[in-house]
Amino acid sequence: MVSPRQARRMGGRTVALDRDTIPATQIRSQGHVIWHDPAMGEAFDPRLFEPDWLARNGLVTGRSTGRNEALFLHVDGLDLVLRHYFRGGLVGRLNRDLFLRQPVARSRAMAEYALLSWMERQGLPVPHPVAARFTPVAGLTYRADIITRTLPGTRTLAAALAQGPLPAQDWAAIGSAIARMHGADVDHADLNCRNILLDDTGRIWLIDFDKSRHRADGPWKRANLERLKRSLLKEARLHPAVTWDAAGWQALLNGYAAPA
């Protein structure tokens, strides 16, 4: 990891953020703005955001595929996930990863870091945020990256369904986890069967809170559930091995409606 002296040589400085709102330390290094977990202290190395450096040092243990590719890392005994932010839809075909410049705290990675930090402090089932990076680019744009802790022994809901039907208690646990998130007034921008994880103990985790936010109570909660159902229907249509039925969905709704 990088020392304070190395950070100064790299053009960095450390600034404490308001810990009542965002538990993070801010580093400015080589044009980047980085927030990281204060528990890492002076040991945090900004090069954890550099895929080439990570590969050269044997810190990459795997990668996910698809539009939102992520790198899995093992660093100083910690298992981490590095995710770069990409544009989606038609815009993404012309512009892979540039976003219109805005205040650092409102940028994609920092907003997700802040939301995850808050949700974790509320006891919600989300991954621990480790660091987020804002990289200004000429032309009033920026790129973004985030690092979180991995959730060991987990599989996506989509992967679990491909292995066979889920018992009703698992569906109910998924519904309960979503209800807890909604009880905290968090609107998940992309609640789908690949952003819900089940671990070996039966615990449910929710991931990928890009563009998610706090909202007052409203119809968006039902829209979250409908989006999840559409993703399940699509998964079953594309992958015949995926098995779920109306009884499973009803068990999810029962878990959602059950008292906390």
UniProtKB/TrEMBL annotation:
GO molecular function, one term: ATP binding
Membrane as UniProt keyword: yes
Top-level lineage group: Bacteria
Pfam family, one: Kdo
Metabolic or biological pathway: Bacterial outer membrane biogenesis; LPS core biosynthesis
Stored InterPro entries: KDO_kinase, Kinase-like_dom_sf
Gene Ontology BP term (one): lipopolysaccharide core region biosynthetic process
This protein's UniProt keywords: ATP-binding, Cell inner membrane, Cell membrane, Kinase, Lipopolysaccharide biosynthesis, Membrane, Nucleotide-binding, Transferase
Membrane topology note: Peripheral membrane protein
Enzyme class: transferase
Location in or out of the cell: Cell inner membrane
Active site: 190
Catalytic activity: an alpha-Kdo-(2->6)-lipid IVA + ATP = a 4-O-phospho-alpha-Kdo-(2->6)-lipid IVA + ADP + H(+)
Annotated GO CC locations: plasma membrane
Function per UniProt: Catalyzes the ATP-dependent phosphorylation of the 3-deoxy-D-manno-octulosonic acid (Kdo) residue in Kdo-lipid IV(A) at the 4-OH position.
Similarity annotation: Belongs to the protein kinase superfamily. KdkA/RfaP family.
Protein name (record): 3-deoxy-D-manno-octulosonic acid kinase
Native source organism of the sequence: Paracoccus alcaliphilus
Lineage: Bacteria, Pseudomonadati, Pseudomonadota, Alphaproteobacteria, Rhodobacterales
Gene name linked to the record: kdkA
